[in-house]
Structure formats: C-alpha cells, structure tokens
Design brief:
Low-confidence stretches of chain A: none
Number of strands of chain B: 8
Mean pLDDT of chain B: 92
Number of helices of chain B: 4
CATH topology of chain A: Ubiquitin-like (UB roll)
CATH class of chain B: Alpha Beta
Shape of chain A: globular
Strand order of the largest sheet of chain B: 1-4-6-2
Strand content of chain A: 25-35%
Radius of gyration of chain B: 16 Å
Helix content of chain B: 25-40%
Distance between the termini of chain B: 24 Å
Shape of chain B: globular
Largest sheet of chain A: 5 strands, mixed
Mean pLDDT of chain A: 95
Number of domains of chain B: 1
Largest interface: B-C, 33 and 33 residues
Oligomer: heterotetramer
Strand order of the largest sheet of chain A: 2-1-5-3-4
Largest sheet of chain B: 4 strands, mixed
Chain lengths: 84, 147, 147, 84
C-alpha cells in the first residue's frame, strides 16, 4: 500500500487529509497517480484534474510530477507552497 | 547555536535575541513577520506538512551555516489560526560581522516565504475564505540566492 | 514612527521591536551591534560630535524613509565607555513587506558603521589603548548604496 | 572669532576639545586653518602636520579640506570617522 497525504485546497477538495491506495505499477509516476485519483470524479476530479496547478513530494522531498514513485512510502499532493 | 521550531504558539522575540546576543559576535540581525489586517482580513490559517517542514527548515539553516560564518541561527515558524498583528515567523542570526548576519537573515526569510511547505488561507469579515496563491515575486527572490 | 536617539545608556530591544511590530506592517527587521571582546579588549570608548550626530542620523533616516515605503524606523546609538557584550547600536525598521524592511535596515547600519561621526578607542588588558582606523571595507559598502 | 572643535586623537594631540581663534582671512580654507594651527608646533604639529589623515566639518557638515571657511561659526577637525 502507498500513503497519500493532501494539503490545503487539495485536501479540502478530496475531503480527507490522506489515505492509503494500492501501490501503482513500478514505473508509475506521480502524474500517473494523480490521473488515477482524478478518474474517481467528484472532488477528486475537481482538484486533481489540472496537474499544472499541483505540486508533489515523495517521502517529504519536493519532486516534479513526472517522478517515478517506485518504492516510496509517502506521496504528498498540494498546491504550490505559499510560505510563511 | 542552532534552533528551529515549528509551533502553533507565540514566541518571545526578546529571549531569542538575548540568546543570539550572548554568543560573542558583533552583530545580531532579525526579521519578524506579522499578520497584516488589510482588506477585511480577520484571520490567517497556516497549514503545513509537519513531516516535511522541520526537516526542510533544518536543511536550509544548515545551508546558511555553510554559506556564512554564523555563530547562531534561530528560526521559529508558527502554524494554525493567526489574527492580524500576530507574529508568524522569526529569523535571527548572529555573526562576528554585520554583513553575514544581515545577508543570512534575508536569505532565510526569503526561503521561508517562498519555499517552506506552508499554505495560507485567508478569512475575511465578509465573504468566503480563500487560499493564497503562490507569488512569482517570492520565487524570483529565492532564485536570486541560487535556491 | 521615527525615533533617533544618541545616548550613553543601554536600551530595551524588546520595547523597540514591540513598537515597530504594532505599526500594522507585515515585517520588522532589526540589527543590533555588540562589542566583541577579542584580542584582550576590555572596553571600547565611543566619542562623537554631539552637535552633528543627531542631525546626521536624522537625515539618513529621512533618506531611508524617502527610499523605501516604511511604517517606522528606530535608530539608537550609544556613546561612552562600553564593555564586551554591551550593545552599541540598534536599527529597527517596519514595513508592509519584508524587502523594504530588510534593505533599509542594512542601508542604515552600513551608514552608521561607516559615515556616522563616531570615533572608537580600544582599551586592552595589556598595552596602550589605540584609536580604531577607518575601514576601507565599510566605505565601499556605503558607496554601494550611493552614499 | 571662530570656534574650533577637536575629536579623537586630534583632540588628544592638541590637548583640548575646542578653542576660539581669530577669524582667518575671508578666502582662507580649512587646510589654511590647519596649516596655521600646525605651525604652533608641539602637539598641534604632530596631529595636524599631515592633513591627509584629517577630516573636517563646517557648521556640522562634512567638507573637503579645501573648502573656504567664510562666515561659518564652527570648524571641526578630526580623524576619519570610524562609525558605530
């Protein structure tokens, strides 16, 4: 299983701050995961349907969305950070 | 001295500065960020990614320590609901000379204001709350430091 | 808010910062200069030109107010005999945005450290006291601001 | 009469923090005044004999040493300022 965590309006849109999903294929990228989640429709489609607005982290490190998830433990999806 | 704290509660600027002043350096620089109450804002809600924030701030403080000859660095960042006039963030740096203290202080606050994993939601006295957009200006400033 | 004080006694950094934080701006930057106790230094004696100092510091603060959108500036400079660890100088600036606060703080301290009419005499635990020479480095930094 | 004030090692060298002198000629510069004072010998000659090391102010404004004193009320002589 793979942990996903959501922040800010992504969290509000999907209606939860995190969840566990089946681990995607070994060569799946963050963008693939986002597309898979957006396909659920509803709030997921609304906030994850336009990946240009999204940023991601794998195991607490910022990554581009085309990064392969591989054996990572946690993927985070969120809007661009706005700092302090 | 290195101190990093990500916390909901307010902090004591005087105590932070006193600790930095006691390190024997010639200069202590600081920056304190405060919630502005403009446009009917009644509260700012800061959300962060706890597993990431502390580690990332730690790392950027290490970068500053590698880049400037500093005797001490203190970074405090609050999260949660903050009202106008409340302190959000504090950066304090101590060095033998003023330039290192001033430059590293500016470097750290530029990073915190642009790259730190925080998201801000603004609540107004009228109308719906809204999430603040990332500002291109901040990103440009951080790039000036090679971030 | 504009406050300039040339005084022999110590000052309360927390009180200065609290006054600047209360102005409604988003950021307060500060620099505090402290006597370093290196090379056997036991005291620093600061002499100044009273008729000139207050007027000149006033004028450079006005320059800063003209150059950056500041809500407040506080400059305190001590004179007389100061021992290692003692505060010498404080600059605090408040603005809506951090860049104006940080830049004007650096501008003011660079001016104070290079152009303000102070002379420093170092007293050591052994050997004769000596007057500190003007540093070319400081003059260069001030020139960077067009001073 | 013209007020002169001295600071730092200039003050120590001349042995006083200020004095009044006869007003010099209308076209006299600060450098002329310095030369006149240095001609007194002793501490005056020691600290005022090398004008390159000196800085001056007329009526509380920094001026080059070739500035004409004119009707000024106060001339200050001192080493380059060392700041705070």
């Amino acid at each position: 299983m793979l942990n996903i965590v959501y922040f800010a309006w992504v969290r509000e849109g999907v209606g939860r701050d995190g969840e566990q999903v089946e681990r995607p294929a070994p060569d799946a990228t963050v963008a693939d995961l986002v597309a898979m989640l957006a396909a659920r429709g509803g709030g997921y489609a609304q906030v994850l349907g336009d990946p240009v607005k999204l940023r991601a982290a794998i195991d607490q490190r910022f990554v581009p969305l085309d990064t392969v998830i591989g054996a990572a433990g946690e993927v985070a999806l969120f809007p661009p950070v706005t700092g302090g | 001295m290195k101190r990093v704290s990500i916390q909901p509660q307010d902090f004591d600027v005087a105590a932070e500065l006193a600790a930095l002043e006691a390190l024997g350096g010639g200069g202590v620089a600081s920056f304190t960020g405060i919630v502005r109450g403009e446009g009917g804002l009644i509260a700012l809600e800061l959300e962060h990614y706890p597993a990431m924030t502390q580690a990332q701030v730690d790392r950027i403080v290490d970068d500053a320590l590698a880049r400037w000859p500093l005797l001490g660095v203190s970074v405090i960042h609050r999260f949660g609901r903050l009202e106008p006039g409340a302190r959000i963030v504090f950066v304090g740096t101590a060095s033998r000379h003023r330039t290192a203290a001033l430059e590293s202080c500016a470097f750290l606050i530029d990073w915190l204001k642009s790259h730190a994993p925080f998201w801000k939601k603004e609540h107004f006295d009228a109308g719906a709350p809204r999430w603040v957009d990332a500002r291109a200006e901040d990103a440009a400033k951080a790039q000036g430091w090679g971030l």
